[in-house]
Write a structure and sequence with these properties.
Number of strands: 6
Pfam family, one: MMR_HSR1
CATH topology of the largest domain: Rossmann fold
CATH class of the largest domain: Alpha Beta
Keywords: Cytoplasm, GTP-binding, Hydrolase, Nucleotide-binding, RNA-binding
Function: Required for a late step of 50S ribosomal subunit assembly. Has GTPase activity.
Oligomer: single chain
Structural class: alpha/beta
Number of domains: 2
Shape: elongated
GO molecular function, one term: RNA binding
InterPro entries: G_CP_dom (IPR030378), GTP-bd (IPR006073), GTP-bd_ortho_bundle_sf (IPR023179), GTP-bd_ribosome_bgen (IPR019991), GTPase_MTG1 (IPR016478), P-loop_NTPase (IPR027417)
Strand order of the largest sheet: 3-2-1-4-6-5
Helix content: 25-40%
Distance between the termini: 23 Å
Length: 281
Amino acid sequence: MAINWFPGHMVKTKRAIKENLSLVDAVIEIRDARIPKSSANPEIDSLCGNKPRLILLNKSDLSDKASTKKWINHLTKSNVRVLEINSLNGIGINSIKPILLDLLKEKHERLKAKGLVNIVTRVMVVGIPNVGKSTFINKMARNNIAKTGDRPGVTRTKQWIKTSIGIELLDTPGILWPKFEDEDVALNLAFTGAIKDEIMDTEELAYKLVERLSSVSPELLKSRYKIDEISEDPLETLDNIARKRGCLMSGGRIDYNRISVILLDEFRGGKIGNITLELPE
């Protein structure tokens, strides 16, 4: 499944990250807790350099808890901290300031030694499209400053957002890389909605999702759709799910478009269960 998608504004975003990095004390990188590896832009490490970073595993209410803990341990480094959050209900948000203060402790001590008292922490917020960046910023700012939407690519311009806890956030549009060489990465992004559905074949994507879920969470798949077994053939499993949901056309033919939309919507909404699609290597 070859996918090429690199809108022009994302080229500008990459340039803006480089240009504005000197304006901030730290970087908050938001990833999808269901796909912590696939939702990390491989260029973020080189773009951010040694800048202190806080990785937020967002949508943690949709991921497998044990898997999320493994990812936290795997990603944590001397200048990188990792926190699981849910931007919609605010779980984990209160832990962000203490973690940032710990990351920036030495810098703040130097500033205080120079007589500065009211220190404002400036942070750049980065992440791929549709990972929940704008929802996070709105939760931090307690109002709808940043545009939000369930379609990738809503935020287009740079904006500074003040919060009541001494942190200023620099928002940037979501950035994806030019080409997805790894099919698993491309599929993970498509499953979770980071890639626009318009450029995907929905029925093929649903087939691939059944194939993946049959491997990582077969019991949840069986329980949700009340099917007795998982077939070795993903298409047969998809057919059984369609019949259970009544997605049939005249003559008993499977309505693949309808069941594909249902399956993708229910996975993205967490209705199938708490699922993490990849684990640390």
